[in-house]
């Protein structure tokens, strides 16, 4: 579906993306794990059309994306701050993309209500953004993105601002919604467990280079992902009988 070939990007002479190549299949979620500063956000911005690559090729269903402006790519970029219109209620925030496309009222009602249901937001439909919790706001942001049925969803640490418990439930909700709707998405995070939980496939970004793993086992076996270290920690804790 998405075919990325030899993408390079420099900021003031500093290489931020180095010869990145990968493919994203339809209906899969690719998790990219990486430390802060490894180039994750830059990669997503290049895909979304918010930044341009110095070199390389971006193909979406065989179409070269480079001449296509950001708002016509069908690629939505979401990050941890849920950007909502403060003067519109939840329903209207989600409906926005359909109103922009002049869809009939009956269709808007039907689609928005179905999506609010899916995102466990029906009781919040008439609330204003300022009346919502962080997790609810993030769900409305998903609703705004999903209502226009994007071809690819780019998620940049979307749960980074949420507390641990809310983060857990949001991960599960997104996983469910993603399977149900067959989303095609890239999920970037610096959190190992989150990457492993969200991704159908796993990748790791280090110093502007991206490695995609053939399997979960391969990801775990690579010391640099930190997965083995995490496993060893729990084994040691268990052996020391500190888990009781
Ligand atoms: P991540 O999302 O993994 O934290 P980023 O893609 O935000 O990483 O940043 C990668 C590198 O590129 C960092 O060293 C950052 O300082 C640099 N960088 C990002 N955006 C810009 C910019 N607009 N101008 C100059 N340097 C930038």
Automatic annotation (TrEMBL):
<keyword id="KW-0813">Transport</keyword>
<dbReference type="InterPro" id="IPR015853">
    <property type="entry name" value="ABC_transpr_FbpC"/>
</dbReference>
<keyword id="KW-0067">ATP-binding</keyword>
<dbReference type="InterPro" id="IPR050093">
    <property type="entry name" value="ABC_SmlMolc_Importer"/>
</dbReference>
<dbReference type="GO" id="GO:0005524">
    <property type="term" value="F:ATP binding"/>
</dbReference>
<keyword id="KW-0547">Nucleotide-binding</keyword>
<dbReference type="InterPro" id="IPR027417">
    <property type="entry name" value="P-loop_NTPase"/>
</dbReference>
<keyword id="KW-0406">Ion transport</keyword>
<dbReference type="InterPro" id="IPR017871">
    <property type="entry name" value="ABC_transporter-like_CS"/>
</dbReference>
<keyword id="KW-0410">Iron transport</keyword>
<dbReference type="Pfam" id="PF00005">
    <property type="entry name" value="ABC_tran"/>
</dbReference>
<keyword id="KW-1003">Cell membrane</keyword>
<dbReference type="GO" id="GO:0016020">
    <property type="term" value="C:membrane"/>
</dbReference>
<dbReference type="GO" id="GO:0015408">
    <property type="term" value="F:ABC-type ferric iron transporter activity"/>
</dbReference>
<protein>
    <submittedName>
        <fullName>Sulfate ABC transporter ATP-binding protein</fullName>
    </submittedName>
</protein>
<keyword id="KW-0408">Iron</keyword>
<dbReference type="GO" id="GO:0015697">
    <property type="term" value="P:quaternary ammonium group transport"/>
</dbReference>
<dbReference type="InterPro" id="IPR003439">
    <property type="entry name" value="ABC_transporter-like_ATP-bd"/>
</dbReference>
<dbReference type="GO" id="GO:0016887">
    <property type="term" value="F:ATP hydrolysis activity"/>
</dbReference>
<keyword id="KW-0472">Membrane</keyword>
<dbReference type="InterPro" id="IPR003593">
    <property type="entry name" value="AAA+_ATPase"/>
</dbReference>
<feature type="domain" description="ABC transporter">
    <location>
        <begin position="2"/>
        <end position="232"/>
    </location>
</feature>
């Amino acid at each position: 579906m998405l075919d990325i070939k030899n993408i390079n990007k420099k900021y003031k002479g500093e290489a931020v993306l180095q010869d990145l190549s990968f493919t994203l299949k339809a209906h899969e979620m690719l998790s990219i794990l990486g430390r802060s500063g490894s180039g994750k956000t830059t990669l997503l911005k290049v895909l979304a059309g918010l930044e341009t690559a110095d070199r390389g090729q971006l193909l979406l269903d065989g179409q070269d994306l480079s001449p296509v402006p950001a708002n016509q790519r069908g690629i939505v970029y979401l990050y941890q701050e849920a950007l909502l219109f403060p003067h519109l209620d939840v329903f209207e925030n989600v409906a926005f993309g359909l109103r922009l496309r002049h869809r009939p009222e009956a269709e808007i009602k039907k689609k928005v209500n179905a999506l609010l249901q899916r995102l466990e937001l029906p009781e919040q439909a008439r609330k204003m953004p300022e009346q919502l919790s962080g997790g609810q706001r993030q769900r409305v942001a998903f609703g705004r993105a999903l209502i226009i049925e994007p071809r690819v969803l780019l998620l940049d640490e979307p749960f980074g601002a949420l507390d641990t418990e809310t983060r857990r439930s949001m991960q599960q909700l997104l996983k469910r919604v993603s399977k149900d709707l067959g989303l095609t998405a890239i999920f970037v995070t610096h959190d190992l467990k989150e990457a492993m939980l969200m991704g159908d496939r796993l990748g790791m970004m280090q110093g502007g280079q991206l490695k995609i793993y053939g399997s979960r086992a391969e990801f775990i076996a690579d010391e640099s992902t930190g997965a083995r270290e995490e496993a060893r920690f729990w084994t040691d804790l268990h052996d020391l009988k500190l888990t009781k």
